[in-house]
Design a protein that fits this description.
Helix content: 25-40%
CATH topology of the largest domain: Immunoglobulin-like
Strand content: 35-45%
Number of helices: 7
CATH superfamily of the largest domain: Macroglobulin (MG2) domain
Largest sheet: 6 strands, mixed
CATH class of the largest domain: Mainly Beta
CATH architecture of the largest domain: Sandwich
Shape: globular
Length: about 250
């Protein structure tokens, strides 16, 4: 009997939470960003609308929105050089795995003011939390390496946080713009939007877009991956021809 009551109570709690949840429409202005020879960066627009919940009720109250943009993940190594026997050599290092090559955190207000601390800690939205999670191995000072990695990625315009980067055009319609730098990595990007009310996440949607090379740059990239031997021989041959041609021109 007691177990049955607990089961009924759990169903009622779950039903109450699902009714509170909102639905959302979320999309991007560009599904594919092409990288060409004179690519100097591009800005894409992400937009969405908070829809009625599963009970058909219109959204009530005020909302906040958080948008996370994550590029392809990979490994990065940060090293610290030190002078040994009069020569600068690599000393301590830190290895980061599963680290996004591009990461943006955009929100309608600062995260600390719209999300409960427990939710913020659990979901690890911030740049600092992402870097801390990616740390796999280190032989040195952890805060030093994490801070240096964040600085390097921010200087390259690959990591950034915009605490008021999401704008509401109406009580439910929101929009944000994301700048992709000239050195943006190639691959699949994930844009994740979250609707927040009273410190809790009430709706989530994910949208993908692609950054791809085009033209001769794409041909070279594919050749280096698919035909590495021929690509290497072609590079050596091109270097020999260029050197010979330079010698002929300067001899004259």
């Amino acid at each position: 009997m007691a177990l049955r009551l607990l089961a009924i109570l759990a169903l009622l709690i779950g039903a109450g939470q699902s009714v509170r949840g909102q639905d959302m429409v979320f999309s991007t202005s560009d599904r594919i960003v092409w990288i060409h020879s004179n690519f100097a960066g591009e800005t894409i627009t992400l937009f969405g609308n908070i829809e009625p919940d599963i009970a058909g009720e219109r959204p009530r109250g005020s909302y906040d929105v958080v948008v996370l943009i994550r590029g392809p993940v990979g490994e990065r190594v940060v090293r610290r050089k030190s002078r040994q026997f009069g020569v600068m050599l690599n000393a301590d290092y830190a290895l980061f795995t599963g680290l996004p090559s591009f990461y943006r955190v955009l929100s309608s207000r600062p995260l600390s003011t719209i999300l409960d601390p427990d939710v913020l800690r659990e979901r690890a939205f911030t740049v600092e939390a992402r870097v801390s999670q990616a740390l796999t191995n280190t032989t040195g000072n952890v805060p030093l390496f994490e801070g240096e990695l964040i600085r390097l990625m921010q200087d390259a315009s690959l990591f950034a946080t915009a605490q008021r980067g999401v704008t509401f055009l109406s009580p439910t319609l929101f929009v944000t713009r994301v700048s992709l730098p000239a050195n943006v990595p190639n691959g699949v990007f994930l844009a994740h939007a979250l609707v927040v009310q009273d410190g809790q996440i009430v709706a989530e949607r994910t949208q993908r877009f692609f950054v791809q090379k085009t033209g001769f740059e794409r041909f070279l990239g594919e050749a280096s991956r698919n035909q590495p031997l021929l690509y290497g021989l072609a590079c050596v041959l091109l270097a020999l021809v260029t050197g010979w041609l330079g010698g002929v021109l300067f001899r004259r």
